[in-house]
Design goal:
4-stranded parallel beta sheet, Alkaline Phosphatase, subunit A, Alkaline_phosphatase_core_sf, 15% strand, 34% helix, Phosphodiest/P_Trfase, hydrolase activity, alpha/beta, two-stranded antiparallel sheet, signal
Amino acid sequence: MSWLSFVLLCYKSTFILSQSPPLLLLVSFDGFRFDYPQLYGPLQHFSRLEEQGVHAHSMIPTFTTATFPNHYTLITGLYEEVHGLVSDQIYDSTTNSTFQISGNMTNQWWPFKTIWTINEQRPEGRSGVIGWPQNQIFVSKFEPYRKERSFKDSTDQMLNWFNDPEEPINFGAIYFPEPELTG
């Protein structure tokens, strides 16, 4: 048995013995390049996250670098050619309907299971989603995108959900429209 297999086995055993699901937080800063902390640093809090958590050395976006296709890929694990969202605006000639980033988005545009849906199907799985680019999300805790919501309010709400004494979430996804919104 290799060293890595042993470490993974110990991690899995610890998780099974703990009987509580691991915590995971997915944060999206729209338009934030992986190397911004190095280019515009020092960004003290990002450096701390990098040292104490995990980070990507780079990211290869899906083919079109639009918000919705990339975010749907992140939460489903599917490429655009499978999930069908190839732009922030799409016209479907078969149903004569339009998908728009600012419009009412029905479930016809979201047919695949997301990471939070799969988490909700697990015993003890509770998800919380704030501001994610998708209107109709059915999870334990959900707040739709609101342009006027501050970074602090969103962050505080997510932390409250993780620390809820009655029904804490074990998976959270939070979307921030910056730095894309201001350029």
